[in-house]
Every structure is written in C-alpha cells, then in structure tokens.
Amino acid sequence: MTLDPVDLTARLVRCPSVTPEEGGALVLLQEILEQAGFACTRVDRGGISNLFARWGDKGHARSFGFNGHTDVVPIGKAEDWTQDPFGAEIVDGYLYGRGSTDMKSGVAAFVAAAVDLVTNEPPEGAVLLAITGDEEADALHGTTALLDWMEAEQEQMSVCLVGEPTSPDHMGQMMKIGRRGSLTVWYSVNGKQGHAAYPHRALNPMPAMARLMDRLASHELDTGTDHFDASTLAIVNIDTGNPTTNVIPAQTRACVNIRFNDAHTGADLSDWLRDEAAKVDAEFGTRTEVEIKISGESFLTPPGPLSDLVAAAVKAETNQDPELSTSGGTSDARFMKNHCPVVEFGLVGKRMHAVDERVEVAQVHQLKSIYTRILREYFA
Length: 380
Hints:
Layout: H1 5-13, H2 25-35, E1 39-42, E2 50-55, E3 63-69, E4 90-91, E5 94-96, H3 100-120, E6 126-132, H4 143-153, E7 159-162, E8 174-176, E9 178-179, E10 181-190, E11 194-195, H5 205-218, E12 232-239, E13 247-248, E14 251-260, H6 266-284, E15 287-296, E16 299-300, H7 305-318, E17 323-325, H8 333-336, E18 342-344, E19 358-360, H9 361-379
Parallel strand pairs: 3-6, 3-7, 7-18, 8-17
Antiparallel strand pairs: 1-2, 2-6, 4-5, 5-19, 9-16, 10-14, 10-15, 11-13, 12-14
C-alpha cells in the first residue's frame, strides 16, 4: 500500500477545520488509519476534537510517536485570496489552501509514511499518533487532553516528532530541539482622575506607566545560553482610552510579552514583573493590578540519538545539514516534552498563516521520504 501525501494534504485542506471546528479532517484520518490497522480513539474534550492512533502491540517498549494538528487559523478576507482557501487547487507546482503549510501537509506526510511502513514493512514496535484540533487557539483541550488520556490508558511514546514547519527558507534547513518559553503580562495602573489644569488634585497614572515600561524595556534579561538566543521583552500595547485633552485619566493599561530561554522560569519572571510594578507604585503612589499568563516554559531536548536520527534522515534526503535550533514561537512540543524526548521537523514555514498560503508539491513528497527514512532507521 502506498499513500500519496499530496492527495491526502488536498483532502485535508478541503476540510474547513478552523479552530475549534473539526471540519471532517480527523474523521478522514481515522478512516485511513483504521484501514491500515491502526487502533483509533477520539479524545474529545471541552468542545475540541482530538485523535489518538496506535499501530502495534500496546506492550511494546519501543514506540515512535508523532504529534501534529489539523486545526487552522481563519482565512481573513476571502476576496484577498487568488484561490479558494479550502479548494486545494494546484497551480504552478504549489498546492493552495489554508493549512496547506501549517500543518496539514506535515500530518499527511507522516500518516502516509506510517501507513506505508506498517503495511509494507511491519516494524518491531509501535507507531503512535496524537493529532489535535486545538493548536492554533488556546491549546487547553488539545494535546494536553491527549496526554491526559494517554497517561490514564498507559500509552507511552518512547520518542516524539512534532511535524510543525521548521525551516525558514529552504527544505532541510532547520530542526527544533527546543523552544523558548512565552509569558504575557497585563498591567493596569490606577490613579485618580482630575482636571489637566490642576494636576496636583489628581494622581496621573501615565507617568507611572511610562516609568514601569521604561524599567522593563531597559532591563537586559540575559545574553543567551548554550542553545538559546537572548530572551526578549516586547511592549505590545499601551492604552489609556482618553479622548479628551483636559482630563487626567484614572487608569492606563499596557501589555508586555516575554519570550524566554532556559535561564528563566515563568515563575521567576512573574515575581520580577510584579516586583517592578510594586517599586513604581511606591514611587508614584499608584496602585497597579497585574495579570500574568504563562503559555509555556522553555525546554530543550539535548543533542543526542533522537536529533542525530532526524538530522541524518534530513541529510540523506535533502543533502542539507539541518541547524539544531530553539528559535521561533511556541508549539505543542512544549506539552510533549513532559512525556518523552521530542524534536520538531517539517516544511518551510514562510507562507503559513498568510493569504494564499501554499505548499510546494515536491516538498510534500520529500517530507514523506524524510519521515519514512526516520521510521525505518528508528526500528532498524
């Protein structure tokens, strides 16, 4: 049995699975995987659809796992697209459609590689897939729900490959062995409203917020670590909502995002962010409310057998030595790393989430070849 990854990508793109809609994508994958002998279970939670699939005996000590998602971001304005966002049209060697790059082609390539392997060269071991419909949104009931279910059912991956797009410009350029952590903080600085002509009768929160933002933006979090670039802090919003010119506002708000490396934890940074606000309040007499959301901690899978396996397969199929990187945003690898060693490798990602998102057809075939080689070598 040979499964065409481009045809499967097209069929998945035609499923309008904008988070949280399942759109038929997981139903399609379950049908294909069950025909190939995989035992499939829907692990739906909180209105989110998820799929777990296993080929091979549950008792195998050696298993290869794959994690990916079939949900996609909204298309934006349909009139801005030159092709139907859910039409999966192939034009000049590219397959167009929302999710074609991120990451239905990655799911299709791995499913095709896994189905071919277990039907034509059954390995000694198990192949497991954890595919979610909640990666692009809050990720509260997606891969975390799958991992909770796996723990309860004693399903274990020995290692895991996440099929997110990883290369900036050309195929085989980069793989991920870790990710930075992500933290967002919302500040609300409260003062006392008053007339702009009589500032001594008011308590203006604006200077306090300006001082706080300057303290945060001027602070060097670190200079980088062995496998990570320096952590970054970005002020992404300051909003007072004051349309007048003669009123001192009672409150101003700001939002800051931090991407942090393994020199920090979310808890340590949270303590620092609250402490900075307290110092400014003590200086200005304001009262600052602080809300913090930690989207994920930084993590690293140290270079070793798993990264060597993936890098060798990439080299063999692309003649590229992939850079071992920890750059970029967050992915569901931040959840999988609590279960087993995890790395990420997938397509070129520069067109993901864009209008006219598209994937080069030849690269989808190439990705299947890479995944096939990884599986064969792992079970050899």
